[in-house]
Every structure is written in structure tokens, then in C-alpha cells.
């Protein structure tokens, strides 16, 4: 608990303003690295630091390497008012530990380190080396792993304690993209859409939109708008707030998109200005009330990895342009080239500029591999239950590996609030994960 508390206390959010030599992601992530090295060195693990991009802590013998990949960087505190504890203080309440990064990914890293410590102190013979590989930019650019594997070989087998149990052997492909429409806002309708502002965040379903209308018939506008949270009218201007339910953009089905509510209200405004009409038509034709990409001709489903997801994340509708940002995820049956062609086709047909801002390929590990069989055995030996395989839309360090999967720490029924207020991990989950990791390391590296 002391070791975990020391890591949670460090606000290891990327900050390029404080970067320096050996601290490419800023001082706080550097401090978290130093604290982890202090803990691992105290436990007799051999540590190497790779220019502040990544580090590893190693124990064991042999030429072959088993990798356990985690990260010490965290996401910012997006919503202060959602926390009932100090995000940077480890707090135990009702069988849970609270703090930013406690589930993603500091407690799982400590669990893996202590699992290795247990085997070390039991004097178990190691036939393979075990490396705890720790990155500093998992939540941002991933250049940590690029740098690390430019200086180190790929492990024979690896897992990342940065997701769910039993075993995530598939991760969908990811494309973040945006459309930009260049055109000035006109006032040529009875009701005129002037501005849309949403939160400038990545990775979430849009749960807030502030919309400005100008109208020559405010009484009619007030009647036709039905989906809003609040409205303030000042003369011929109306400020309208739409709210939804916050969820990770990889799981749009778990949220409620505020922009979908706006879209429904825009459909009630027949006398809309030209730019507002354009935006409404774009939503209706390709995106409104669709979280699978079916309207945009992007839908696909794979019997193993599930279906595509499409999340409308942000809209910035200003005087000079419209910028719309998306998160699209796809299974291994999809064709990435065809997906990009469809993006471009929509752009060309609607006078839009397409920009792809991030992309990660599909990752999938054969269910018959030695890695999978070993982790299934470890999980069953500890829990007594079969370790089922499944796929997710998330992005973990497993993607940086030739043979790697996500393995815990979250169990079905846990609510860790990853990237949200009140991030937590159950004490029972943490200790059970440590036990499973101990068994997994024993099977992979010692037996």
C-alpha cells in the first residue's frame, strides 16, 4: 500500500513544458519513473532506464524473455467535481482503493512487481527472464514503446495488466479522424444556427454541447426545441445546452451523445439557415443515432471480434468553419483501405477536408498459442474458472508486441471508472490479480 500510495501521489500527466533530458514527457512522469525504479531496486530487480521514454525491471535467468508491460502516465483530471476523494492521494474506502491511475495502470504494475517478488523470495528457479516493461506515453503518443523496442528485443511472450480478465486476445483497429468544412455562417433563415461548442477532449462520447441560435421567431424556436437541458434567451439570441451521458468513445453504446439530441432538434427547424441546414443534412445522412457506422457504409461485424463502432466525439461550429471529430473502431474482418476510401468518399461528396489524426492496426493472438494456453492455466489454477477469450475496442501495450495479450486486472462486475472521476480498484481484485500474475509468471518463466 505504501508503494502504491507513493506512485498515486505523483500527478504523472504528460507536460511538455517541463520536459528535459531524460524526461521527454515532463517532470512528473520522470518522478514516477524514479519512484518505480527505487521500489524495484529495493526488491532486488535489475533496472534500466531508456532515456526517460521507458524502463524495465528484470529478474530471472535464461536467454528468453517474458514481458509484462504497463505504464505510469495517467490522464488528466477532467471533472474535479466528480471526485469524492483527492485524486492524488491513495484512499481506502469500503473495500476499494481510490486515486487517479490506481487502476490504469499503477496498481496492476505494483501487483505484477509483487508477484515477481513472491517467486524471487520463494527461491523458485527461473528458466526465462521476466521483464516489467514500463512506458511513459501510453495515454498519448506511444513513442515510449517505439523508443524501447528500438533498443531491446521483443519478448518471447508478454501480457499487459491494463484491462480485463480473463484474457483479451483481440483489440480492434482504431482510426481517429476529423472532417473540416470551410464556410462562413450566414443568417438567411427564420432560425439560424450560429455556434456549437463541445468539450475539447479526446476519447469520450460527447456529453455536452453549447449551441447558439439567432431567431426572428423566438417563441416558435422555444416550442420546437425539445431535447435540451437548459435555454437562456436574450433578445433574438438563444443559448441552448444539451447534455448526454459520458462514456469512453470506444464504447459509444454505454453513453448518450448530446449531439444526437441536438440533431433531433435541428430536424424540427424547417426554416434553418444554409450552413445550419448543411450541418443537419450531414448528420442525418451519415451519423445521427448511429454508433456502428451503418449510415456511413462503414458497418462490419466479425464473429470473433464483434462489430465496428463509430463515436461522434466533438463538434466545433464557428463563424468560419465546422470541425467534426470521430473515433472509429473495426474488427479483423474489415479492410482498412476500404474504410479510408469510405471516409474520403463522404468527404468528397460533402465538400469536406478529411484528416486522419491517429490510427492503430488490429491486434489478434491465436487462441492456440503457448501464451494463451499458459495464461488460461494460470487463471483456472487460481480461480477455478475457465479463462474465456474476448476482444475489445481499447488500446493497450499488447499492440506493441508480436505475441502479447491483455490479462486483467478488472473482473466482471467491477466498476473501475477508468479515465473518469473516482477511479478505483477493489482490494479483492488487486490481491486476486497478484495471485494470478504470480501463477502466470511461474508457468511462463519457471515451470
Which helices and strands appear, and what pairs or packs with what?
Layout: H1 2-8, H2 27-42, E1 46-50, E2 54-60, E3 65-71, E4 91-93, E5 96-98, H3 102-121, E6 129-135, H4 143-151, E7 157-160, E8 163-164, E9 167-171, E10 173-182, E11 191-198, E12 208-215, H5 218-224, E13 230-234, E14 237-243, H6 258-266, H7 274-286, E15 301-302, E16 306-307, E17 309-317, E18 321-330, H8 336-349, E19 353-360, E20 363-364, H9 370-383, E21 389-392, E22 404-406, E23 409-410, E24 424-426, H10 427-446
Parallel strand pairs: 3-6, 3-7, 7-22, 8-23, 9-21
Antiparallel strand pairs: 1-2, 2-6, 4-5, 5-24, 9-20, 10-18, 10-19, 11-12, 12-14, 13-14, 15-16, 17-18
Helix pairs in contact: 1-3, 3-10, 9-10
Given the structure, what is the number of helices? 10
What is the SS-derived class? alpha+beta
Query: Any idea of the CATH topology of the largest domain?
Result: Aminopeptidase
Low-confidence stretches: none
| Domain unit count | 2
Shape, please?
Answer: elongated
Total strand segments: 24
Ends distance:
29 Å
> Beta fraction of the residues?
25-35%
The top-level CATH class of the largest domain is Alpha Beta
Helix content: 25-40%
Summarize the structure in words.
- There is one protein chain.
- The protein is an alpha+beta fold and 447 residues long.
- The protein folds into two domains: 2-172 and 363-446, 3-Layer(aba) Sandwich (Aminopeptidase); 174-360, 2-Layer Sandwich (Alpha-Beta Plaits).
- It is built from ten helices and 24 strands.
- It has helices at 2-8, 27-42, 102-121, 143-151, 218-224, 258-266, 274-286, 336-349, 370-383, 427-446; strands spanning 46-50, 54-60, 65-71, 91-93, 96-98, 129-135, 157-160, 163-164, 167-171, 173-182, 191-198, 208-215, 230-234, 237-243, 301-302, 306-307, 309-317, 321-330, 353-360, 363-364, 389-392, 404-406, 409-410, 424-426.
- Helix 1 (2-8) packs antiparallel against helix 3 (102-121) and helix 9 (370-383) crosses helix 10.
- The longest helix has 20 residues, at 102-121.
Amino acid at each position: 500500500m505504501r508503494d502504491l500510495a507513493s506512485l498515486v501521489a505523483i500527478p504523472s500527466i504528460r507536460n511538455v513544458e517541463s520536459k528535459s533530458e531524460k524526461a521527454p514527457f515532463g517532470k512528473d512522469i520522470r518522478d514516477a519513473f524514479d519512484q518505480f525504479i527505487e521500489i524495484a531496486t529495493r526488491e532486488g530487480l535489475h533496472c534500466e532506464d531508456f532515456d526517460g521514454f521507458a524502463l524495465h525491471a528484470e529478474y530471472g535467468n535464461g536467454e528468453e524473455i517474458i514481458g509484462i508491460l504497463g505504464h505510469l502516465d495517467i490522464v488528466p483530471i477532467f471533472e474535479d467535481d466528480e471526485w469524492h476523494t483527492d485524486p492524488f492521494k491513495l484512499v481506502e474506502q469500503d473495500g476499494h482503493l481510490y486515486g487517479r491511475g490506481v487502476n490504469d495502470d499503477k496498481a496492476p504494475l505494483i501487483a505484477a512487481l509483487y508477484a515477481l517478488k513472491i517467486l524471487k523470495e520463494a527461491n523458485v528457479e527461473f528458466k526465462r527472464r521476466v521483464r516489467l516493461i514500463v512506458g511513459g506515453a501510453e495515454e498519448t503518443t506511444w513513442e515510449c514503446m517505439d523508443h524501447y523496442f528500438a533498443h531491446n528485443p521483443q519478448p518471447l511472450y508478454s501480457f499487459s495488466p491494463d484491462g480485463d480478465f480473463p484474457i483479451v486476445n483481440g483489440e480492434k483497429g482504431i482510426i481517429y479522424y476529423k472532417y473540416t468544412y470551410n464556410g462562413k455562417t450566414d443568417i438567411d433563415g427564420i432560425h439560424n444556427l450560429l455556434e456549437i461548442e463541445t468539450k475539447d477532449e479526446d476519447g469520450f462520447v460527447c456529453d455536452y454541447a453549447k449551441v447558439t441560435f439567432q431567431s426572428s421567431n423566438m417563441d416558435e424556436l422555444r416550442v420546437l426545441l425539445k431535447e435540451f437541458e437548459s435555454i437562456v434567451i436574450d433578445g433574438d439570441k438563444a443559448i441552448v445546452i444539451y447534455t448526454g451521458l459520458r462514456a469512453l468513445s470506444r464504447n459509444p453504446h454505454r453513453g448518450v451523445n448530446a449531439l444526437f439530441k441536438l440533431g433531433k432538434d435541428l430536424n424540427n427547424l424547417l426554416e434553418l439557415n444554409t450552413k445550419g441546414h448543411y450541418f443537419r443534412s450531414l448528420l442525418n445522412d451519415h451519423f445521427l443515432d448511429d454508433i456502428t457506422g451503418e449510415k456511413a457504409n462503414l458497418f462490419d461485424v466479425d464473429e470473433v471480434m464483434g462489430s465496428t463502432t463509430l463515436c461522434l466525439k466533438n463538434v466545433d461550429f464557428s463563424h468560419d468553419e465546422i470541425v467534426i471529430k470521430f473515433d472509429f473502431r473495426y474488427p479483423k474482418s474489415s479492410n482498412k483501405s476500404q474504410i479510408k476510401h469510405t471516409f474520403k468518399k463522404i468527404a468528397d461528396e460533402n465538400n469536406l477536408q478529411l484528416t486522419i489524426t491517429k490510427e492503430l492496426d488490429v491486434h489478434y493472438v491465436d487462441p492456440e498459442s503457448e501464451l494463451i494456453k499458459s495464461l488460461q492455466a494460470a487463471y483456472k489454477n487460481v480461480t477455478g474458472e475457465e479463462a474465456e477469450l474476448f476482444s475489445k475496442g481499447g488500446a493497450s501495450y499488447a499492440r506493441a508486441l508480436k505475441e502479447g495479450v491483455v490479462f486483467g486486472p478488472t473482473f466482471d462486475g467491477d466498476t473501475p471508472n477508468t479515465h473518469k472521476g473516482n477511479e478505483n480498484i477493489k482490494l479483492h481484485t488487486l490481491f486476486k490479480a497478484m495471485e494470478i500474475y504470480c501463477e502466470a509468471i511461474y508457468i511462463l518463466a519457471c515451470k
